[in-house]
Amino acid sequence: MKLFSTKQIAEVDRFTIENEPVTDIDLMERAAMQITTWIDQRFSEENKMVFFAGPGNNGGDALAVSRQLAERGYRGAVYLLDFGKPLKGSPAINWKRLEEQGKVELHRIQSIDDFPETNPSDILIDGLFGSGLSRPLEGLPASIVRKINGLPNKVIAIDIPSGLMGEDNSGNIPENIVNAYFTLTLQFPKISFLFSENERYTGSWEVLPIGLHPEGIAQTPSKLFLVDKKEVTGMIPRRSRFAHKGTFGHALLIAGSYGKMGASVLASKACLRAGTGLLTSHVPRMGYSIIQTAVPEAMTSVDPHDSIFTEFPDLSPFTAVGIGPGIGVKSNTRKALHELLEKVQVPIVFDADALNILSENKEWLKQLPENSILTPHPGEFRRLAGESVNTWERIQQQRQMARELKVIIVLKGAFTTIAMPDGKLFFNATGNPGMATAGSGDTLTGIILGLLAQSLPPQHAAVVGVFLHGLAGDLAARKKSINALIASDITEFLGEAFLEMESVSAF
Ligand SMILES: NC(=O)C1=CN([C@@H]2O[C@H](COP(=O)(O)OP(=O)(O)OC[C@H]3O[C@@H](n4cnc5c(N)ncnc54)[C@H](OP(=O)(O)O)[C@@H]3O)[C@@H](O)[C@H]2O)[C@H](O)CC1
Ligand SMILES: [K+]
């Protein structure tokens, strides 16, 4: 699914009005009805609804919702932010409709002294500003926002918490942004909702469809996407009945060192579960019996060194390589990694210590084979790319690096972002906080390697791998709880994650 900037959303909005066709006021009524229905399903007439309406269409939505809820028997009061300019267009029509209906108290806020007294059970509806916000809030609107944030009441934001920008909030003023309990956003998630630092403003959020024109959506270009299940399903190849294990490739995993053999075990198991035909796990000598015992399905390649990785095997049998979990950053390991960089001819995924070695030898980055996959967590990414002030800036760094180096960068987080060499960026929505646990990254490396080995194009392997990893984590959390989730659970539930994907369950 494409993600749009607030400016682009306004364009799709206009396209819908012209081409559906639908009048501006009817589109607002449709959006308002979605919000009204959502609220009515979760609250009762016992809660008074207190609306804060701004001068634009976000305010217009609030006015329309207040009228619709009043029709359903709710008590309501509207506080219109009044800069002394008359309302125009659809907000003006909605104000008139409210006056005619006569069921909702109508007030104006001209100075902060007009801010109302409220009861803690009142639900506050924030319709001050939405996607038309052009600069951080100051003056009267900012004072209203600070008052709202000081109250114990639940706040429901219409479309966007007022004061929050849809994309970049670098220069914004945090205390002048509404802290919503819930945000009901229209048609598309706004990009800034996908950044962890903005959760305090959005609270939980839900997308309410308002029937914007599919053609308008299709012809508006975007390089940002939210990964959806249907797209991922289409990227998983169907297995022929006549397949044999050679059909699904041969993965080489270089992972583990003394004290960190768990990384090798976790990544190996995940790689096998992701469907590789064959797996060879390359381990230091001391790791031989560990990996043979823990993962009998894997073949083993033994390093001449007792406790670390120093030399990779002949690469000719392998269809993909994964390197990094638990390998450490000793000098022999660094040398072997560099040599691998020069020799490898098949798709490769770099994780953990492999990334740490690369950040200490940044000149090697230029030698990364095209379409290599890098899977840093935020700390590893910082070491690779430098500091950033917020997520928006960080994803710009991520996109730039992916473009410059012609690699795929999987930046792990609550919404993992995947940057492609052509500038596209995918946000992944599967996964849960239980997955922020030891070894979770090793399982992701294993999954991506397993998919690469089966000849999925690297861009698909990255998107599918991240999606399945998160989905398996979600399914595991349902059985084991978010708190008790451990990395092996993710691998254990990978099969169920595959079954959830339509193409596979069709068998
Ligand atoms: N397609 C959809 O999703 C639909 C969305 N709807 C709703 O419409 C809003 C967007 O409405 P819009 O009128 O474009 O914008 P806002 O209501 O957010 O506010 C615009 C007015 O606010 C002024 N403004 C902007 N920034 C500030 C500020 N920092 N301080 C004070 N005033 C500000 C702006 O004036 P300018 O000075 O910038 O010119 C405007 O007067 C969307 O969020 C949805 O809620 C439709 O109802 C249905 C379709
Ligand atoms: K709002």
TrEMBL record:
Complex and partners: Homotetramer.
> Which NCBIfam families does the record match to this protein?
yjeF_cterm (TIGR00196), yjeF_nterm (TIGR00197)
Q: Where does (6S)-NADPHX bind?
A: 57-61, 130-136, 159, 263, 326, 377, 442
Q: What are its E.C. numbers? A: 4.2.1.136, 5.1.99.6
Q: Where is the YjeF C-terminal domain?
A: 228-501
Instruction: Write down the InterPro entries for this protein, in alphabetical order.
Output: Carbohydrate_kinase_pred_CS (IPR017953), CARKD (IPR000631), Nnr (IPR030677), Ribokinase-like (IPR029056), YjeF_N_dom (IPR004443), YjeF_N_dom_sf (IPR036652)
Positions contributing to K(+) binding: N58, D126, S162
Keywords from the UniProt entry: ATP-binding, Isomerase, Lyase, Metal-binding, Multifunctional enzyme, NAD, NADP, Nucleotide-binding, Potassium
Indicate whether NADP appears among the record's keywords: yes
Cofactor note (record) = Binds 1 potassium ion per subunit.
Write down what this protein is called: Bifunctional NAD(P)H-hydrate repair enzyme
Superkingdom, according to UniProt? Answer: Bacteria
What residue stretches are annotated with the YjeF N-terminal domain? 9-218
In which family does this protein belong, per the annotation?
Belongs to the NnrD/CARKD family.
Q: Which cofactor does it need?
A: K(+); Mg(2+)
Instruction: Write out the catalysed reaction.
Output: (6R)-NADHX = (6S)-NADHX; (6S)-NADHX + ADP = AMP + phosphate + NADH + H(+); (6R)-NADPHX = (6S)-NADPHX; (6S)-NADPHX + ADP = AMP + phosphate + NADPH + H(+)
GO BP, sorted A to Z: metabolite repair; nicotinamide nucleotide metabolic process
Cite the binding residues for AMP: K412, G413, A414, F415, T416, G441
What does the protein in this record do?
A: Catalyzes the epimerization of the S- and R-forms of NAD(P)HX, a damaged form of NAD(P)H that is a result of enzymatic or heat-dependent hydration. This is a prerequisite for the S-specific NAD(P)H-hydrate dehydratase to allow the repair of both epimers of NAD(P)HX. Bifunctional enzyme that catalyzes the epimerization of the S- and R-forms of NAD(P)HX and the dehydration of the S-form of NAD(P)HX at the expense of ADP, which is converted to AMP. This allows the repair of both epimers of NAD(P)HX, a damaged form of NAD(P)H that is a result of enzymatic or heat-dependent hydration.
Instruction: Recall the GO molecular function terms of this protein's record.
Output: ADP-dependent NAD(P)H-hydrate dehydratase activity; ATP binding; metal ion binding; NAD(P)HX epimerase activity
Against HAMAP family, the record matches this protein to:
NADHX_dehydratase (MF_01965), NADHX_epimerase (MF_01966)
- Organism of origin: Mariniphaga sediminis
Establish whether keyword Isomerase is in the entry: yes
